[in-house]
Amino acid sequence: xxxxxxxxxxxxxxxxxxxxxxxxxxxxxxxxxxxxxxxxxxxxxxxxxxxxxxxxxxxxxxxxxxxxxxxxxxxxxxxxxxxxxxxxxxxxxxxxxxxxxxxxxxxxxxxxxxxxxxxxxxxxxxxxxxxxxxxxxxxxxxxxxxxxxxxxxxxxxxxxxxxxxxxxxxxxxxxxxxxxxxxxxxxxxxxxxxxxxxxxxxxxxxxxxxxxxxxxxxxxxxxxxxxxxxxxxxxxxxxxxxxxxxxxxxxxxxxxxxxxxxxxxxxxxxxxxxxxxxxxxxxxxxxxxxxxxxxxxxxxxxxxxxxxxxxxxxxxxxxxxxxxxxxxx
Length: 329
What we know:
Blueprint lengths: L5 H12 L23 H4 L9 H17 L6 H11 L2 H11 L11 H13 L6 H19 L15 H15 L1 H15 L18 H12 L2 H11 L27 H20 L6 H15 L7 H4 L2 H9 L1
């Protein structure tokens, strides 16, 4: 089975360092309130203005910081920490926070970017440096946004793109475990309310530009909010034929026809995130469960389909290493 190695970690870190802080191309998420808003992205986002878009920059930082902790002797570590000293500082965080107070900003990066910012803060706390303390006010801003948003989200967002609520809540729940008991309880209540009665999932996926599995991210979230025995019962009702590889599309890697097309390249991310989901779900169910071995096989098929394509075209290269790290770690 393919595992994360020092050589792979170094390759990922080099790739991501090459575009963290790279000013252009950049896809700005901005509502123009007046002509004064036509400024360079770095004016609004002095930290997260690289890697093509805000959220990819956030999880690019998560990735290089995590790799630096896992492989402290990696050659890239000194550059990672030097750039963290330059970028992850209170004055720049204050400007990032100010952006959230702009008119028409309530939906900025909701919920995907919110969740990755919390994941980054959680990772920074595992390092001996000032970076987590600097980023904490921004993390608390996004935690509050989850508190405000989730009670009014009547229906779950099941799509396989950035709006997927299950993926975001998996990351947010990991942060909340150590920071915000009320958010942990809110996430569990909403997940159970949305998904507890889901049965016999047909898994009509993937869509043509999806990088997340609606079915598997839902299952992964439920594995966090339910005790193992309850989750096993729920999973067996949710995917009752999974032990025989049905629905087949959940076990079959997506075909990526054009990796220079940013939307179609999302499908490499789908393969990597499905690999991550299958591995995590199998670990919760345990080797005694009938789906365990077929989930492990699905993990390998999806990993093999897209791991060789993490680099090669910037449309995938600016973000795919993060999802490869999730799958491999």
